[in-house]
């Protein structure tokens, strides 16, 4: 399907050891010469320094030749001329000093520029090498290359579909996330198309090949990534841009000093102090410092070019799944009949689903475990593909799965179906002993830090934000509208994504963020590819220039700020260093600074600019104490539990709207218990414990003032509902004149709480460090 560099690993290791070896040899020559000089062995000292200089001349010559072949004339010309000049005028110590500076600069530059391989090996590792082909008397395993159009193939559970084709058996349950990014499994019936690279998430199914492996979707993804990566050329180094004016100036001053004084030593002295060590040292140090600081935030930037481009970026293209959403289907809401218990419905459903490999079943089980529910071991479990699971749980027959609602379905069930359609959610119906009991809505929810992240990305300098996703148009546009994105493109194939990224890149320096194999080509096609590496595929990380290891997209904004600061410090250090070198060149031109003294002065300049460049390591950071972080996690977990209970407010309002005042009276009692026994104590604890603790990391206590005011409104509405309950209890039921205000209080409190939870999660809970990249947000 694709070819890779087959160079032996020992050759690669040898190539990477060149810079350390160069530094070690020149350093040893300088030190050995110094020891010999102190011992009085001047000839031995000169020999050592000459050796160090000659060692440096060889790579310096290669750098110059390589630059000329690529149409560039860099600062390495000055370094080469000064090295040769020190030998000609017998200033051997100066030559050795220049050699060690060049070796140090080269080592630092290699550290800044070395990037991980982009051979996309993991793409091929994931691809199947063989396929199972049906023959008259059974099934045979054949190499993938032997598959031709029309072959009948068998795909086992958990296997990757080897080629594009059509389903020929009854039903195929597929995980297409590798191609579309959509986390929910899909069903394909007889005659429907399937693509290579997707995973069989159900039982064995049969298919007919409609393309060879080379012509199938997955091979196309590999080729797209390779082609796009080949287009990406590194940017010109900062040092080379400055060299555009410094090189001719240094040569002119050196030549003028020789012509006017007749002394070649003066010309060499000018070249020595003009040796661009502030460029060769300060720039890599600032870049490496920026890379190091970014890595401490969980942002791995592959090289200096990526760091510089990141600082220039003005457009951002994002995938939806795993980037703006969590990338995992979760139980968004558990709906039940009016007298049902959502917690018990979830527990029974999760217990029945424990033995199912289906992605939605796994989501239900995970949701129950997150809520700390104790599951029972199911018996007589039976799973029907495309329908669901039936099992005995605690001596009750529980069924979880799809269901065609009858015309006389209860109102709550019809309401659940409508809500699922509006929310773009999958719905798992739960029946207990043949009675429809509940519905679990499963969605790929928006990341709780998404809004804060978008604001921070815009403030970091990104003025155009675009979503490219393989997901359906409705949920994509809903998220794009909510986040205020500039453009949304849904139902995009990998080729469409590459085309979209290229179009954006033609307008501006473009960053692409993704987390799936399907995103690898688009990442490689962008100016800067960013992989959500904490949960993304290895192929995506290898095709990216930046990898976010902490599953926090908002750290990309931090990385952009770091990139801009590191580049600014690099340019500042190089410019100041070159300015000091210009002054030194003037002294050298008038014979006031011999070559050896000039080399030592240049070392002093180097130290100054390096210390300045190291400032890129530092920066402001919001520090959250361990105790506060633990508190944030605690209240965040409580939010997860409370959020599912908020539906009691909406359900009670629904009962009231139907005119069933007796049922509403009972429901209002349950609302009162929830509010005063569970919700309000939570809000009071936030005011008493959490908000004061956040004053330090947020800068002042006013940062939480609006949330405290929201607590006051929640308390007011809760007490107003209690007053209604007291009146209803006294009158023997809810009166007609209470209905309007009760509806306003119930719907109003539901809306206020939903908004309040989102604000707290976005503004405060995202400050807590993520304990595990794979945990739910």
UniProtKB/TrEMBL annotation:
<feature type="domain" description="P-type ATPase A">
    <location>
        <begin position="127"/>
        <end position="226"/>
    </location>
</feature>
<keyword id="KW-0067">ATP-binding</keyword>
<dbReference type="InterPro" id="IPR023299">
    <property type="entry name" value="ATPase_P-typ_cyto_dom_N"/>
</dbReference>
<dbReference type="InterPro" id="IPR059000">
    <property type="entry name" value="ATPase_P-type_domA"/>
</dbReference>
<dbReference type="InterPro" id="IPR018303">
    <property type="entry name" value="ATPase_P-typ_P_site"/>
</dbReference>
<dbReference type="GO" id="GO:0019829">
    <property type="term" value="F:ATPase-coupled monoatomic cation transmembrane transporter activity"/>
</dbReference>
<dbReference type="InterPro" id="IPR008250">
    <property type="entry name" value="ATPase_P-typ_transduc_dom_A_sf"/>
</dbReference>
<dbReference type="GO" id="GO:0015086">
    <property type="term" value="F:cadmium ion transmembrane transporter activity"/>
</dbReference>
<dbReference type="Pfam" id="PF00702">
    <property type="entry name" value="Hydrolase"/>
</dbReference>
<protein>
    <submittedName>
        <fullName>Heavy metal translocating P-type ATPase</fullName>
    </submittedName>
</protein>
<feature type="transmembrane region" description="Helical">
    <location>
        <begin position="267"/>
        <end position="288"/>
    </location>
</feature>
<dbReference type="InterPro" id="IPR001757">
    <property type="entry name" value="P_typ_ATPase"/>
</dbReference>
<dbReference type="GO" id="GO:0005886">
    <property type="term" value="C:plasma membrane"/>
</dbReference>
<feature type="transmembrane region" description="Helical">
    <location>
        <begin position="47"/>
        <end position="65"/>
    </location>
</feature>
<dbReference type="InterPro" id="IPR023214">
    <property type="entry name" value="HAD_sf"/>
</dbReference>
<dbReference type="InterPro" id="IPR051014">
    <property type="entry name" value="Cation_Transport_ATPase_IB"/>
</dbReference>
<feature type="transmembrane region" description="Helical">
    <location>
        <begin position="569"/>
        <end position="590"/>
    </location>
</feature>
<dbReference type="InterPro" id="IPR027256">
    <property type="entry name" value="P-typ_ATPase_IB"/>
</dbReference>
<dbReference type="Pfam" id="PF00122">
    <property type="entry name" value="E1-E2_ATPase"/>
</dbReference>
<dbReference type="GO" id="GO:0005524">
    <property type="term" value="F:ATP binding"/>
</dbReference>
<keyword id="KW-1133">Transmembrane helix</keyword>
<dbReference type="GO" id="GO:0016887">
    <property type="term" value="F:ATP hydrolysis activity"/>
</dbReference>
<feature type="transmembrane region" description="Helical">
    <location>
        <begin position="242"/>
        <end position="261"/>
    </location>
</feature>
<dbReference type="Pfam" id="PF01814">
    <property type="entry name" value="Hemerythrin"/>
</dbReference>
<feature type="transmembrane region" description="Helical">
    <location>
        <begin position="72"/>
        <end position="89"/>
    </location>
</feature>
<comment type="similarity">
    <text>Belongs to the cation transport ATPase (P-type) (TC 3.A.3) family. Type IB subfamily.</text>
</comment>
<feature type="domain" description="Hemerythrin-like">
    <location>
        <begin position="632"/>
        <end position="768"/>
    </location>
</feature>
<dbReference type="InterPro" id="IPR012312">
    <property type="entry name" value="Hemerythrin-like"/>
</dbReference>
<dbReference type="InterPro" id="IPR023298">
    <property type="entry name" value="ATPase_P-typ_TM_dom_sf"/>
</dbReference>
<dbReference type="GO" id="GO:0046872">
    <property type="term" value="F:metal ion binding"/>
</dbReference>
<dbReference type="InterPro" id="IPR036412">
    <property type="entry name" value="HAD-like_sf"/>
</dbReference>
<keyword id="KW-1003">Cell membrane</keyword>
<keyword id="KW-0547">Nucleotide-binding</keyword>
<feature type="transmembrane region" description="Helical">
    <location>
        <begin position="21"/>
        <end position="41"/>
    </location>
</feature>
<keyword id="KW-0479">Metal-binding</keyword>
<keyword id="KW-0812">Transmembrane</keyword>
<keyword id="KW-0472">Membrane</keyword>
